[in-house]
Design goal:
This protein is an alpha+beta fold. It has 2 domains: about 170 residues, Elastase, domain 1, CATH 3.10.170.10; about 160 residues, Neutral Protease, domain 2 (Orthogonal Bundle). It contains 10 helices and 10 strands. The strands form 3 sheets. The protein has a 6-stranded mixed beta sheet with strand order 1-5-6-4-2-3, covered by helices on one side. Strands 7-8 form a two-stranded antiparallel sheet. Strands 9-10 form a two-stranded antiparallel sheet. Strand 9 and strand 10 form a beta hairpin. The two termini are about 25 Å apart. About 5% of the residues have low confidence.
């Protein structure tokens, strides 16, 4: 099913569903409200003009063009303007966290891949904080970032995690690179690519090697008392959380455990664990800083203009193998990519 007009959120629907089905009336209301707002964002995106997005400035910029808005716990977007490039830091921590992480993500893409903003041409980066009340999510709606404050019982404010922000902005990179249909395996690849570059942005900022990195997505968004460390683990899919209020992390690491479901657009947040783990294995095998080789292979695959929007795991595996060969020739890099996909049960042979 082709679908480029999608809204991407960091917290997967199965967690929101678990909250919406809670025996605690307050938690149930929070879950239902978050689910409804997620749905409203998707409907608004579908009703927008196909491919609609902010216009890029006339010339590509080497510096980010950020504007942070405040929804004041309402749902009208973008909300009131609170900080732009020429403004001093705000008194609101969420505003400053969003502003800083948008800039850090811009810097990562510019310094590592020479990409100017998410469209490659200096696209302004807009974000809205304090969206609704107890909204347990952060999302990219095709035009801008939107951050909830969390409910304080399960989730913290989502502006505090760089990898969350880089993950969501990478959905924009994918969008401007031709897109991947947000359904089934192409949708799982879409989510996985955002996890890959979300993690790499964090690793680059902290100057971590593949060995030093935690490979967690959303580390820090869960409040104390939740039995979990993050929303996802690329190193060990299926182990990020196991809590009676949120359920157990359902991500598989290999194709033998692929989850067939009609929910979550065919399990895009679940089956992304398979290509996530493949990337981790490549990075682990090559060692050093993961953005230098493994990240470059994935980036070339995404931005080459040849990846079909309905690419499945095997198509993507073949494309990454070809990208490794194109960049580095026959050798350790291509071997690492081919071996990693074999380890997760995906055929990378053309």
């Amino acid at each position: 099913m082709e679908n480029h007009a999608y809204v991407c959120s960091i917290v997967p629907p199965h967690i929101i569903d678990a909250l919406a089905e809670s025996d605690d009336p307050e938690v149930r209301e929070i879950g239902l409200r978050t689910r409804e707002l997620d749905h409203q964002q998707r409907q608004q995106r579908l009703q927008a003009a196909p491919g609609a997005a902010p216009a890029a400035p006339p010339s590509a910029a080497d510096q980010p063009d950020r504007t942070i808005f405040d929804a004041g716990q309402g749902t009208d977007l973008p909300g009131g303007r609170t900080r732009g490039e020429q403004d001093p830091p705000a008194t609101d921590q969420a505003v400053n966290e969003a502003f800083d992480s948008l800039g850090t993500t811009f810097t990562f893409y510019y310094e590592v891949f020479q990409r100017r903003s998410i469209d490659g041409a200096g696209l302004p980066l807009d974000a809205t904080v304090h969206y609704s009340h107890n909204f347990n999510n952060a999302l990219w709606n095709g035009r801008q970032m939107v951050f909830g404050d969390g409910d304080g019982r399960h989730f913290h404010n989502f502006t505090g995690c760089l990898d969350v922000i880089a993950h969501e902005l990478t959905h924009g990179v994918t969008q401007y690179s031709g897109g991947l249909d947000y359904q089934g395996q192409p949708g799982a690849l879409n989510e996985s690519i955002s996890d890959v570059f979300g993690s790499l942005a964090k690793q680059y900022t902290l100057r971590q090697t593949a060995e030093d990195a935690d490979w967690l997505i959303g580390e820090g968004v869960l409040v104390p008392g939740i039995n979990g460390v993050a929303l996802r683990s690329m190193k060990a899919p299926g182990t990020a959380y196991d809590d009676p209020r949120m359920g157990k992390d359902p991500q598989p690491a290999v194709m033998a455990d692929y989850v067939n479901t009609v929910r979550d657009a065919g399990g895009v947040h679940i089956n992304s664990g398979i290509p996530n783990h493949a990337f981790y294995l490549v990075a682990e095998a090559l060692g050093g800083c993961a953005w230098e080789k493994a990240g470059r292979i994935w980036y070339q695959t995404l931005t080459s203009g040849t990846l079909p929007s309905d690419a499945d795991f095997q198509t993507f595996a073949q494309a990454t193998t070809e990208a490794a060969h194109s960049l580095y020739g026959a050798g350790a890099e291509e071997d690492a990519v081919r071996k990693a996909w074999g380890q997760v049960g995906v055929n990378s042979n053309g």
